[in-house]
Every structure is written in C-alpha cells, then in structure tokens.
Amino acid sequence: MDIRNIAIIAHVDHGKTTLVDKILHTTNVFRDNQETGELIMDSNDLERERGITILAKNVSVTYKDVKINVIDTPGHADFGGEVERVLKMADGVLLLVDAFEGPMPQTRFVLQKALQLNLKPIVVINKVDKPNCRPDEVHDAVFELFFQLDATEEQLNFTTIYGSSKQGWFNTSLTPTEDITVLLDTILAVVPPPTVNDGPLQMQITSLDYSSFLGRIAIGKVTRGVVKEGMAVMLCKVDGTMVRSRIKELYVFVDMGKKRVTEVQCGDICALVGIEGFQIGETVADAENPEALEIIPIDEPTMNMQFSINNSPFFGKEGKFVTSRHIRDRLMKELEKNLALRVSETDDADKFLVYGRGILHLSVLVETMRREGYELTVGQPQVLTKEINGRKNEPYEVLVVDVPAEFSGKVIDLVTQKKGEMHIMETKGMMQHLEFEIPSRGLIGLRSQMLTGTAGEAVMAHRFSEYKPWKGFIPGRSNGVLLAKTPGKATGYSIDKLQDRGAFFIDPGQELYEGQIIGEHIKPGDLVVNVAETKKLTNMRSSGTDDSVRITPKIQMTLEECMEYIQQDECIEVTPLNIRLRKIMLEEEDRKKFSKSMKSEA
C-alpha cells in the first residue's frame, strides 16, 4: 500500500487543528450524519478550554488509495519537546503560515528542526479570507526565512498553496475552489513515499500511548525491515544496554483509531504492545543483530519551580492525593511521556524541583494534577543559570510583539524596564512589529502588564535563543500585598472599610487563614489587615444600614497569572477547588525575625 507520512507545523493559532478537521471530513472518516464538532483532535479538556494543542496526535486517512498518516503538533514554544520527537516519524511537513501575521518565532523554531531532518516542505498560506491579509508579502517572508535557515536548493523550491481552512478551500492561486482536494493532491505529488530499507528490523519509539487494559504502548515509524506480531525483538536502551522482548500485539492507525494487524511494512507508523520499560527515543531492533538508531536530542529546560506538599492550615480538606508519595509518583509518571520535563529530588523529602520549558509548560502540569485531585504548593518560577568561562549566564529569548502604532511607545518602555533590547521595528499595515532580545526572567509577569498597558491589543510571542551573561537585577512587582491577620471568615463590613487600602482577591464569606494573601496594596510594602472583623451590634437603632456596603468585585487570577505574580517569599496553594496565594512563613512574627536576620547578614 502506498503511504505518505506528514506533520503539520505552525505557530499558535495559525489553524493546524482546523486543517486536520477539514482533512478528516474530506476523506469521509465520519458518516454524513455524525456529529463531530470543531477541533476534533484537541481531545483533552485543557486543550479545548484554552484553544491550544498541547500533545502531538496521530490520525490516518485514505485518499485515492494512498494512506496519509497525519501528525498534528502543538504550536506553542513551551511544548517544543512534543514537536522535536514526532518530526522523526514524518517524511514531509505542511508549514502553515497566517496570511496576515506571516512567519512568527515558533514557525522559525519548528521549521529549523524540519529542515535539519531533510523533510520535504509544502508551504500553506492560510486565512486568506481575513481582511487586510497580504499573502504575496508573506510568501516572500517565508522564502526569506528558508534562506536564513540555510535550506538546500531543493528545499527552497517549495510548493505554495493558498486558502482558508475555516472556509474549507485550498488552491495553488488565490482563486477560491470548492474543497481542499488541491492540497491533498499536492501532498501525494510532493511528499515522497517513505524509503523502504530491507534488512533486520529497526524502529525508533517517538511517542507513547497508555491503555489501562494493555499498559504502555510504543508508537513509532518502522525505518527498516518488517515488524510482525509475536516476533522476538531487542530493545536498545538509552544507556547502551539491550533487553530482550516480544511483541504481543501490533496496531496501525486507521482514521481516528487503531486497527490490529499481523505485520507492518517499512515506512508505516505503528503501535506495539508488550514491550516493557521503554523510554521515548529508544530503538526496537531485530533480536539477532540489533542496531540502535541515534537518540533524538531534546532542548534543555530553561525554568524550574519547587513542588511540595500542601502545608497550609487547610491541608487535606479539598484534595484526594495529599502526601509527598502521591506527588512523587505522579511526577515520575509524567516524566514518561513529557520529554522536556525534568524532576530532581531535594534534601527535604516533601519537596521536588521540577524543570520545564516555560511558565505555560509548568502550569499545564499543575492544572492537570489539580483536576486529578492533587493538593500541592508551588513556589516562584526561577530561571536556570549556567557558568560559562567563569561568568554567570542566563537564558535569553527573542520576543516579538505586534501592536497598534499608538501603543508601541508603551510596549518599548515596558520591555526596556525588564532589561530587553529592541532589534527590529517595522510597520505592517495598521500594526507595529517589534522584536526584542530579553532575559527569560524579564518575561515573568510581562504579559499581564503588557495587556493592561495596550488595552488588550498586544500580540506577544517568544522563543528561547541562547545563554548570555547575567543582566543584573530586574524589578519585580511594584506594589506590596494585603495579608490576613487572623483566621476566620471574611466579612463584607471589613472589606468595605479597607477598600481604599488596595484591591481584593477574595469575596465576603470566604474562609481564610493567617498569612494568606488577600489583595494587592496600593503602595510598596506589605500590610497585614483584619478582614474577619464583624460589625459590633448595640441595642440602639442605627441610622445607617448594611445596604450601604458597596464592594468592588474581586480580581480573578488564572494559575499562570498567579505564578507570574508571586515573589520569592510567597507561594501558591493549589487544590482541586481553590488556588490561594500565601506567604511561605504564615506568622507575622516569623517573617519579621527572618527579615531582621537577613538584614544583619547583609
């Protein structure tokens, strides 16, 4: 059977998952009367809520008797680890680019990986139905990008297709057609079939699936030989050891699911059941003469956070899994499939250091754990520094901001405060396109300030570039916080009296404990306030009534905003029902003693 393996790569929100929807519908994967909804591939709750792809997924469709294996990849730089491993399964890539925004930082990052692997590119300029789009300029910008990334002559001679996956048409010119068959025909014509290598079996595990019935399932592309059910194989481990194993069951991808088969030819993507203790990147080889394939290099994490047990006064009230053993087991399980993550244990058995690609990468893990019933405390995200030639170095990122011209001054001001340097400033239609180089530390907390400063108009994207010398002190939050003085329930009466002191994160009637952060102070420096005070009642009739209490609604913060908000002496208590900000030391006396000892040491 003829096979084509293709990965879809693009920046966030350029329309990858919508395109996969259209491919599934065009190739009649579903019955005509079947309800499928939008964004079929974003199957996990978090992906649907945020509208982003987090995990790479496989589907296969049949078009003109050719089987096309399609891999949908995430577009966000924090999930780059997913993209790096799955590109190994593809022979060609569809590079999707928005007809207005053009190539963005993440487009560059994934394209570079694809070109290094010598994959055949097809450029799809999507969303040409948008007002003020500029498909011809974007085409030139993509060509320029290929040239900068040292593409070969053959890769520079890429095929370009224009269209709109939302409206469901693609064509080699800007004339709308009826459907997306032009795109599918181009895939068959341009993407080479996988090379068939005869000889002993070789297959690299590039992805994994889990079934409570079958256990862990290894997924990868057969790069040499044939794999059969019941065959004896050798697993070539990362550390060079060999483990004998046997394939119990063999599956290939058909439409949205899997189908059991007896053998899989070279070049197809398949799933193996029965191999124990494997890791992503290891090779399943012939039992008699095993040869390992080169391990996939994964970019290093740039940030870490401390995860520990919930040690607040509300410990164990809301979660199901609360002990350090539960948290440790869950983190170890996450390591099996989340390639860009690292976990290291500390001297304290209740605390773990978790390393990831960025705030979004770590917050998705915390949010997933919280929904599964875990309670934990997470600390402030820290960037990882390296010692190079005896100097302290830190990670830097390329930050790209598109913003209406009248706000560009505000953006430049905010980024330079965070030690960023501007490299490029161009006008794109009504928008200003700004590019900066900024330390990764400077990005923490920048997004919320930027959206406030530009009335929500700024579009921000960033990607890791390199390690450079430490940039010195970067100012954090300018205002202090309001802290609860005593445990108890917050009352509307107290909050009303304290409204001129700052903005609150809590509602009346909420249970609090001492040392919990309940609002933002209007000045620098923290302020301890009593919000559990009730109104003293006398037997005299009062002229004022409680109806006159008018409380401003509380500030709602998402998990990422909380992670960017807290300072070094603060942490976040995360439970299935609540996210609370608090001081690490809850009692005021302890905090005073600690700050005194720090001053005397200084």
Summary?
The chain is of the alpha+beta class. The chain is built from 15 helices and 35 strands.
Written description of the protein model:
Helix content is 23%, strand content 32%. The protein has 15 helices and 35 strands. The strands form seven sheets. The protein has an eight-stranded antiparallel sheet with strand order 12-11-17-8-9-16-13-14, with no helix packed on it. Strands 2-3-1-4-5-6-7 form a seven-stranded mixed sheet, with helices on both faces. Strand 2 and strand 3 (66-72) form a beta hairpin. The protein is globular. 39% of the residues are buried.
Helical residue percent? Answer: 10-25%
The low-pLDDT segments are none
Count every beta strand, where a strand is a DSSP E run of 2 or more residues. 35
Radius of gyration: 27 Å
Q: How many individual helices?
A: 15
Q: What share of the residues does DSSP label as strand, in percent?
A: 25-35%
Task: Based on Cα principal axes, name the global outline.
Answer: globular
Strand order of the largest sheet: 12-11-17-8-9-16-13-14
Overall mean pLDDT score?
Answer: 83
- Mind describing the biggest β-sheet? 8 strands, antiparallel
State the end-to-end CA separation: 73 Å
Structural class, by secondary structure, is alpha+beta
